[in-house]
Amino acid sequence: MIEFGDFYRQIAVGPLSHWLETLPAQIASWQKDARHGQLKQWLNAVEYMPTIVPEHLDLLHSVTTEASPGLSDGQLLGITTHLRALMPWRKGPYHLYGIHIDTEWRSDWKWDRVIPHISPLKGRTILDVGCGSGYHMWRMIGAGAHLAVGIDPTQLFLYQFEAVRKLLGGDQRAHLLPLGIEQLPELKAFDTVFSMGVLYHRRSPLDHLYQLKNQLVSEGELVLETIVIPGDEHQVLVPGDRYAQMRNVYFIPSAKALVNWLEKCGFVDIRIVDSCTTTIEEQRRTDWMTSESLAEFLDPQDHNKTIEGYPAPIRAVIVAKKP
């Protein structure tokens, strides 16, 4: 099993210390109940992944490692085999010692849209809600964050994150916890909270916004990225059984309606800083994610619509502050 003792020791002193009143018991419960059918395969992939301290590490412009001298063909084959045992890879890409993990999402494109509009991350303690494999956390560290904590209950993502961590030399500046936001107490300890690609999966979106607010320090910043629809401040889509083939999509507001929601939850200085249509170049099938992707989820005759006939995904970035 993945161990979390290093993280517990790291937060034992400081604004996150009171989290230790509940967190270890939650993690112990997760370790007891985590019984995915591929768990042994994932554990082996992480256990046998070598810890390598890179000669060159770039987390500012990408997630890229290089070794000097380069790794042998046998080492690269072993690493590639372990990484492929952790497929599908959805968020990335990663460039690890010449191995290119071409993930379903070009998460670097999203990061490039977000980073110019937010407060500088240097020295900040950050929470990334729904962090996936942790790609954006490494970019946060590259931007100077003091500590990046990601939460995501999907078991596979934890093992992907820990495999990448070993290839980054065991870096302890980022940690992934297999929890959902609803399991967090009101920590009020993070300078920046990211929620990217989560809101439309929540049955109660305003509760989600309150949960995010409760993790921020006073004057802390929320970075919210989510699917929106065209329309005025009154427009909200409540899709039927599926949206773009996703089952668990509940509410998709317009960007202006989302601003109203944030105001209702007490956020201030709310700004819509980016909005763009998701393309089949940004989300697609690859050798590292071989099942259906966005191209199969859109109307083949009209990419402005999902296969169900709803407006195709537009993703907006909204930045707000807690008073």
Task: Report what the structure shows.
There is one protein chain. The protein is α/β, with parallel strands linked by helices and 323 residues long. Helices cover 28% and strands 24% of the residues. The strands form 5 sheets. It has a 7-stranded mixed sheet with strand order 9-8-7-10-11-17-14, sandwiched between helices. Strand 8 (147-151), helix 7 and strand 9 (174-177) form a beta-alpha-beta unit. The protein is globular, with a radius of gyration of 20 Å. The protein starts with a helix and ends with a strand. Pfam families: Methyltransf_9. Keywords: Transferase, tRNA processing. Its EC number is 2.5.1.-. This is tRNA U34 carboxymethyltransferase. Belongs to the class I-like SAM-binding methyltransferase superfamily. CmoB family.
Write the layout of secondary structure elements.
Layout: H1 5-11, H2 23-33, H3 39-47, E1 56-58, E2 64-66, H4 73-84, E3 91-92, E4 94-96, E5 99-101, E6 105-106, H5 107-114, E7 125-129, H6 135-142, E8 147-151, H7 155-167, E9 174-177, E10 190-196, H8 205-213, E11 216-228, E12 236-237, E13 252-253, H9 255-264, E14 268-277, H10 294-297, E15 298-299, E16 302-306, E17 314-321
Output the structural class: alpha/beta
Morphology:
globular
Biggest β-sheet: count, sense, barrel? 7 strands, mixed
Number of strands: 17
Radius of gyration: 20 Å
Helix content: 25-40%
Uncertain stretches of 5 or more adjacent residues = none
Distance between the termini: 40 Å
Mean pLDDT: 97
Total helical segments: 10
Organism: Pragia fontium
Subunit structure: Homotetramer.
Pfam families: Methyltransf_9 (PF08003)
Family: Belongs to the class I-like SAM-binding methyltransferase superfamily. CmoB family.
